[in-house]
């Protein structure tokens, strides 16, 4: 998966992105929990869609868990900001 695909997947289905990336890196839930200081149960619930990850949790997973570079992280955040602005424009 290239950077653009990873960003798109992380935006559209964050839980599926976490699971797919964790498996691609050969990590167990415990491995990812150890890298991010999040609980295995919490990560599992994100992966299966039982919990919605707040932005700070997403950043921890992307940066600490999957070692995203600055370019990818900034592109991800720019898309989130763009989506928020579009949402506000439509709502008003």
From TrEMBL:
Q: Which CDD domains match?
A: HTH_XRE
Designated name of the protein: Helix-turn-helix domain-containing protein
Q: Can you give the residue ranges of the HTH cro/C1-type domain?
A: 18-52
Task: Give the source species.
Answer: Cytobacillus stercorigallinarum
**A Pfam family this chain is assigned to:** HTH_3
């Amino acid at each position: 998966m290239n950077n653009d695909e990873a960003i798109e997947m992380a935006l559209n289905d964050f839980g599926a992105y976490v699971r797919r990336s964790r498996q691609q890196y050969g990590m167990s839930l415990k491995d990812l929990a150890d890298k991010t200081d999040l609980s295995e149960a919490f990560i599992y619930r994100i992966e299966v869609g039982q919990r919605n990850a707040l932005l700070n949790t997403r950043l921890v997973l992307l940066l600490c868990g999957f070692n995203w570079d600055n370019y990818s992280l900034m592109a991800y955040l720019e898309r989130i900001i763009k989506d928020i602005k579009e949402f506000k424009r439509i709502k008003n």
